[in-house]
Design a protein that fits this description.
Protein name: tRNA-guanine(15) transglycosylase-like domain-containing protein
CATH class of the largest domain: Alpha Beta
CATH superfamily of the largest domain: Queuine tRNA-ribosyltransferase-like
InterPro entries: Queuine_tRNA-ribosyltrfase, TGT-like_sf, tRNA_ribo_trans-like
Strand content: 5-15%
Largest sheet: 9 strands, parallel
Structural class: alpha/beta
Helix content: 25-40%
Pfam family, one: TGT
Organism: Serendipita indica (strain DSM 11827) (Root endophyte fungus)
CATH architecture of the largest domain: Alpha-Beta Barrel
Number of domains: 3
Length: 640
């Protein structure tokens, strides 16, 4: 064989700008030719954050009705009003969307939320299952809480690049006159294990993986996005106690049992407290208004309202130490870094408690008559929350994240004096086809059997149930539609003219929602979530009404009755997950494969032949595969 031919087959061809290079017949010479290095194209730098005109920071207040405070310990149920005053942006901000609100004569939007009340979580700025027009129909959505990690798949968060005075509000298109937007780094409801944080950054979970975020990044993005309220940058461990097979800095293979709390090593907790205190100090100074933007009349420099998560996990001593670090006097260096504050608590507007890492299963039973002062301190949920709140100012706002049930909400109001709550299980109920149906105080009922918190509309018993979703006033129970044509342009407006302002229709029934769920229609989840939000909003309204008319002892009695009448949500939700999976598998991806496996299993159980009762001689006996096919087809038909 010609050696040159062999050389051409095994040696790669090299190319330059003029074309293929000539190949040498000498193997040694060819092997010494330098390899051509291919350079990756350098990634373009992210676009800079646009400069924006100065806009005055919102002013928030929280007033507690002192008459509702329990004077024995200061942590009883209380009524209050949270008020946000946001100066109106210039017309350059949202141009045609400028609304001359009648709420104030000073050119500002005024939004009030009564407490106890609810805040709504969001994913990528979207309230689950609800489009923008649906949000306008929903109850209890005055405050929307947004995790920034949903936008961190890009070097610079996309909303920060929006050319507007209030970019976060304008990008998400929530009406300025009716909605409050707050910003945090991580989703409070996410309890998955994450890589360990360090002294320089916190790990955030994005759609493209984990991203490291520093305190300087958080200050930069917060000042660029201009939310109404800001959550402080703190170190909340999402790793478990180290195991023998876990790697340094990696994610532990163990998982957290829901409701039992996350256990963290003592060494990790100490680092967590040190980092968080330093980051909160730096945040206080970093969010101050620039000196050139201070008012001419000598008004002091301001910072946006800041909410600090009270950390420490399931360790009561750690929670107490962090809370006391917020009220201790700062030394000269820290005072300068914090913008002249004497204590960190002076710059804090309110406090937040994250329930997802705490032992919430201790709220599975009704409260005992013994108060936390009379009993020995244990690491129950109430004791951990009170340990964090006792050293702090009782007049400031208190927020509870990831409350697991309405039972827990009632106990947190009664035993800890919490003001605002988010309830992720409300959206989860809509995911599983559950329509909530509970109220406070508990209505008089016959029998002693405990009721579920709602109804699973996937069940066949609702196929012919044409009753409304519930008695709570909500848009699905009293829908209103515009009877005129949909006008897409000014030309349509000239062609079609309607004098009909709108009309009412019959309520959406359980049978209709049952049909939508079994046909995988997205509108089913929107209707369920609209109704469930209305149930929660009415729940808080009834609590406020009861507290204004009764004392604490009567409130505790009603909480006990609520525990007796309504089951915890786990039973209802677990059953709904099973039914949801059955309906999903009936028409979902891989249906044919699952049917074949069912046929094989049935044939293996029945054997090659099966006897049929009353069969006459001479007739063919049905095969097991035929029987299995009929059984599976009938089951699929029933589920659809």
């Amino acid at each position: 064989m010609d050696p040159s031919t062999t050389e051409i087959q095994v040696q790669p061809q090299y190319h330059d700008s003029n074309g293929p290079a000539s190949q040498s017949n000498n193997t040694k010479t060819s092997s010494r030719e330098p390899k051509v290095k291919t350079h990756r194209q350098k990634k373009a730098d992210p676009p800079p954050i646009p400069s924006r005109p100065y806009h005055r920071l919102p002013f928030a207040t929280f007033n507690v009705d002192v008459s509702t405070l329990d004077r024995s310990n200061g942590f009883g149920p209380r009524l209050g009003t949270f008020t946000l005053r946001r100066p109106r942006a210039t017309p350059w901000t949202y141009q045609a969307q400028v609304v001359q609100s009648a709420s104030s004569e000073k050119g500002e939007d005024v939004i009030e939320i009564r407490t106890p009340g609810m805040i709504a979580g969001a994913s990528r700025g979207i309230v689950k299952h609800l489009s923008r027009d649906n949000v306008a129909l929903a109850r209890g959505l005055s405050w929307i809480h947004i995790p920034l990690e949903d936008f961190l798949e890009h070097p610079t968060p996309i909303p920060a690049l929006h050319p507007a005075t209030l970019p976060l509000h304008t990008y998400l298109t929530h009406p300025l006159e009716s909605h409050i937007l707050s910003l945090c780094l991580r989703d409070h409801n996410d309890n998955q294990n994450m890589p360990a944080n360090t002294n320089a950054w916190v790990q955030a979970k994005t759609v493209r993986g984990v991203r490291k975020v520093s305190i300087n990044d958080w200050i930069l993005w917060t000042k660029a996005l201009r939310p109404d309220l800001v959550w402080a940058f703190v170190d909340i461990p999402k790793t478990l106690l180290s195991s023998s097979n876990s790697q340094e800095g990696g994610v532990d293979e163990m998982s957290v049992v829901k409701g039992e709390g996350r256990q963290t090593s003592q060494k990790r907790i100490v680092k967590c407290l040190e980092r968080s205190t330093g980051w909160v100090t730096k945040l206080m100074g970093g969010l101050l208004e620039d000196e050139q933007n201070t008012m001419v009349d000598g008004e002091a420099r301001k910072r946006p309202p800041i909410i600090v998560p009270l950390i420490g996990g399931c360790d009561g001593r750690a929670r107490d130490e962090f809370a006391r670090s917020l009220v201790e006097p700062l030394d000269r260096g820290d005072r300068a870094e914090a913008g002249g504050l004497r204590t960190l608590d002076e710059g804090i507007f309110g406090y937040a408690i994250e329930m997802v890492d705490l032992p919430t299963n201790t709220y599975g039973t009704a409260p005992s008559p013994i108060t936390h002062h009379e009993a020995d301190r244990t690491n129950t949920l109430t004791d951990l929350v009170l340990t964090s709140l006792e050293p702090l100012d009782s007049s400031k706002l208190r927020i509870a994240h990831s409350t697991p049930s309405p039972h827990a909400i009632l106990r947190l109001i009664d035993e800890c004096g919490m003001d605002l709550f988010d309830a992720p299980w409300v959206a989860e109920a809509a995911d599983l086809g559950i329509v909530l149906d509970f109220s406070f105080p508990v209505p008089t009922m016959e029998g002693n059997k405990a009721r579920a918190l709602g109804h699973n509309l996937f069940e066949e018993q609702y196929a012919l149930d044409f009753s409304p979703l519930g008695s709570t006033p909500s848009w699905p129970c009293d829908p209103t539609f515009h009877k005129g044509p949909i006008l897409h342009s000014s030309l349509d407006d000239q062609q079609w003219e309607s004098e009909v302002a709108g009309g009412s229709t019959r309520p959406f029934s359980k049978a209709y929602i049952h049909h939508l769920l079994h046909t995988h229609e997205m509108s089913a989840y929107s209707l369920l979530h609209l109704h469930n939000l209305a149930v929660m909003d009415q729940f808080f309204t009834d609590i406020r009404t009861f507290l204004s008319e009764s004392d604490r002892s009567a409130f505790r009695e009603e909480i006990g009755r609520f525990y007796e009448v309504y089951q915890l949500p786990e039973t209802l939700f677990d059953g709904a997950k099973v039914r949801w999976k059955e309906v999903e598998d009936a028409r979902g991806k891989g249906r044919l494969k699952r049917e074949r496996e069912a046929l094989s299993s049935a044939a293996a159980v029945l054997g090659d032949h099966a006897l049929v009762e009353n069969s006459q001689s001479g007739e063919a006996t049905p095969r097991a595969s035929d029987i299995a096919t009929a059984v599976v087809l009938e089951a699929v038909e029933d589920t659809t």
